């Protein structure tokens, strides 16, 4: 805590030709002055001539502690079958966890990956997520631990079945809240909404209580935990306020799966799989019960919906919540990847927020056309959703994609490959840089249950900011381009690069 004066800085959004002095007192922005005119009294002065001051990012959708756990897992993407076998076989004793495989399965593994994995190890459980974490390959020991019949099982599990087995395998939870916060700050993120398991809630809420993490954490309560509490007669109310370092205002609900696993719930068949319209994870009756209970207990809802049928069902559910809850809270459709244009007016009228992850285009553009056919023209329909008046926020969905807000923005603006090559996918749905940037900063405050005017960098607001030494933020493609100097939040320089500045 204390007072700081940052001199000669540029402010984004703003004119690159203008220079300012910015005064910060404790955790608040005090004032912007012309360059050389700032109030130096009792302040430590940092000469940051030509550096940019930007709001810290909010990642509106990720899986925080699991992202750290993910870093410790075996990475399977691009590996040969022999390399996969070697990676599994040479791991330390205990569960063998990996991620990143894609269709089609290698010939030696298909159609019975269980037996292939058993040939590598039958003593330890093996669990290999695919790239979207909605399907997995498992060996016999993983099935046995989860109480699943083994004899006729091929070792391919999807959606709830995969999640059940995953929950039963003992493993390192990645439960280092301080390390997780530091990891976010190194990405320029000063606020994050995470959807993790119940153990994450305890770890992050306890660590966030005094604000020392430097990141404002928002969490969703898994639907199963919510229903269990209600059915047991427990008091189950939302946690925290917009001003608190930690808050949990949402019940997280799943309606469908993903494009990659052909489990996203569609209004008509997959173009490459006639007869398949995906997975409906919840009947209308079950969904109505959950959302009515959520409304009665004062919760908002965040509903996973990727396919067009799921998106419309999520919007119907949100209309029930908003009609039966007494207070205004941010109800969200998570992913909102495929939206029928005819549904946009209904979503706007409901007041639902579209929480999108344009970075998924990097993976999904390879299969969109083959699986969704002509419907793919309105996948990741950022411009159309925005034009319809529906609030939008962006997230990375880490660890499915990198926790890099710049990459997310770049995907929204350019809709190209990661290296900005190839053809623009759906050019009609591109948006401008400043628009996408706003969806990751000030424009995301309400949707993420953050303090009013968070991310605006106006006097009196939270001094959650990042310092970049670049010619223009609008030229940044990914974090490695950003030249992130330091991050200030909750009264401290969090990367400690400016913390030793001389007092003046």
Please provide a written account of the structure.
By secondary structure, the chain is α/β, with parallel strands linked by helices. The chain folds into three domains: about 90 residues, Roll (Urease, subunit C, domain 1), CATH 2.30.40; about 100 residues, Diaminopimelate Epimerase, Chain A, domain 1 (Roll); about 270 residues, Alpha-Beta Barrel (TIM Barrel). Strands 1, 2, 3, 4, 5, 19, 20 and 21 form an eight-stranded mixed β-sheet that branches. The protein has an eight-stranded parallel β-sheet with strand order 6-12-13-14-15-16-17-18. Strands 7-8-9-10-11 form a five-stranded mixed β-sheet.
**What is the multimeric organization of the chains shown?**
single chain
As for the CATH topology of the largest domain, it is TIM Barrel
CA-CA gap between termini: 15 Å
Instruction: Give the amount of beta strand, in percent.
Output: 15-25%
Number of helices: 17
**Biggest sheet layout:** 8 strands, mixed
Summarize the structure.
By secondary structure, this protein is an alpha/beta fold. It is built from 17 helices and 21 strands.
Could you name the key traits of this structure?
eight-stranded mixed sheet, 17 helices, 504 residues, TIM Barrel, Diaminopimelate Epimerase, Chain A, domain 1, disordered C terminus, alpha/beta
